[in-house]
Every structure is written in C-alpha cells, then in structure tokens.
Amino acid sequence: MESVFICASDALEEGGKGVRFPVTAGSDEATGFVIRFGGQVHGYLNRCAHVPIELDWAPGEFLESSGLYIMCSTHGAVYEPESGYCAGGPCKGSRLRKLIVEEAEGQVRWYPDDYVSAVIA
Predict the structure, then answer these.
(1) Buried b (16+ CB within 10 A) or exposed e, 18-44
(2) pLDDT tens-place string over residues 34-79
(3) End-to-end CA distance of the chain
(4) Per residue in 95-118, pLDDT tens?
(5) Would you say 92 and 86 are in contact if contact means Cβ atoms under 8 Å apart?
(6) Is the distance from CB of 48 to CB of 91 less than 8 angstroms?
(7) What pLDDT digit, counting tens, does each position of 4-29 carry?
(8) Is residue 9 helix, strand or coil?
(9) What span, in angstroms and rounded, lies between the C-alpha atoms of 40 and 12?
(10) SS3 breakdown of the chain: % helix, strand, coil, rounded to 5?
(11) How far, in Å, CA of 11 to CA of 9, rounded?
C-alpha cells in the first residue's frame, strides 16, 4: 500500500505535541496521531483501549505532564509511547493500536493497513 504524508519531521519535537491526521478505522471516521519520543516517531490510532474515545485533552496533547506516557484525558489510562502498552489505569495490560510510520528525508509518512485506512476525499 502507498504511504501517506503526515507532516514534516521538524513538526514533531521530542516529548512535545503530536500531529493528528484523519483515518478510517474499520468503517468509522477516526484520527491517528504521531509523536516523537526517545528520538523516534511513533504512531497510533487515537482511540483509548478502555473505551473507544480520543486520547488527547487538547488537539495534539497526548503526553501527560512528566512527558513519559501517553495519557487518556478521560479515564487517566497511561500508555508507553514506544509500544502503546497500557502501564496503568482501567485497561492495564491492553495496547493502543500501533500504526506503521516512518521518518525519512525530512518527512513523516504512514502506511495504512487492512483495518486503519486512508480517508478517501
């Protein structure tokens, strides 16, 4: 499948705001997001593993105050940014749905899969 441009690499600061982008998850409209953590770009479906609601408390604000975890703004579940593993909260042991992203030549790109696909305009 073709990759989809998400943002320029310099739009993602280490431990800073993420970039949201529209996706289709199954047959539902949804969003994905990318963040930079540990020097790497990580992408996930913007959907809590506990209840399928968006995670960010303001657009692009995914990390909690220490900057060490992705946090669900509604239920307080915390996820490891590298793996999406829920380290605490109501869905402990579950995971966020990881998206395949790559960073090359100053761009962050996403590869849709059989469940999370690009929005067709």
Answers:
(1) bbbbebebeeeebbbbbbbbeeebbbb
(2) 999 999 999 999 999 988 899 999 999 999 999 999 999 998 999 9
(3) 17
(4) 999 999 999 999 999 999 999 999
(5) yes
(6) yes
(7) 999 999 999 998 999 999 999 999 99
(8) helix
(9) 10
(10) 0, 45, 55
(11) 5
Amino acid at 35: I
Whether residue 110 contacts residue 100, with contact meaning beta carbons closer than 8 Å, is answered with yes
47, 97 in Cβ contact below 8 A? Answer: yes
Cα 22 to its chain centre, rounded Å, is 11
Q: How far is CA 61 from CA 58, 68, 94, in A?
A: 5, 13, 21
Q: Is the pLDDT of residue 1 over 70?
A: no
**Contact between 3 and 92 (Cβ < 8 Å):** no
The sign of the CA dihedral 17, 19, 25, 28 is positive
